[in-house]
Design goal:
single chain, 118 residues, alpha+beta, 6 strands, globular
Length: 118
């Protein structure tokens, strides 16, 4: 498993695109807080797992990373996502994510989408 925060974040997107929930949840701190634009805050690993297994409205797709920037405990990512929602609608959207690290794990994640909730 990668040790560098930027590499961990890159690995996160590979895992989410491959629907490897066990492996992606392992990248997060037990006390993770996930703030996702337009949805209630997700607190803790159990809630994060539930989000990916039951609540996420994205059925499948892939992330294309543009910029990956590191500053101290934070890694910022700007990219595009293309895929299919659980209702069958196609989606193509830009995103910006912020990942904060504690003890080598992501303990805070913030996601912004311009103009759409996914």
């Amino acid at each position: 498993m990668p040790r560098n925060p930027a590499d961990i974040v890159r690995n996160y997107y590979e895992l989410v695109d491959a629907d490897k929930v066990d492996d992606l949840v392992a990248l997060f701190h037990d006390e993770v807080v996930y703030e996702r634009q337009g949805t209630p805050e997700i607190n803790g690993k159990a809630a994060l797992r539930r989000f990916y297994e039951e609540e996420r409205i994205i059925a499948e797709g892939s992330h294309r990373l543009g910029s990956v920037l590191t500053d101290g405990d934070w890694v910022a990512v700007r990219g595009r996502f293309e895929g299919t929602l659980t209702n069958g609608d196609p989606v193509e959207i830009r995103f910006t994510d912020w990942h904060r690290f504690r003890d080598g794990l992501i303990d805070r994640r913030e996601t912004l989408f311009p103009g759409r909730r996914v």
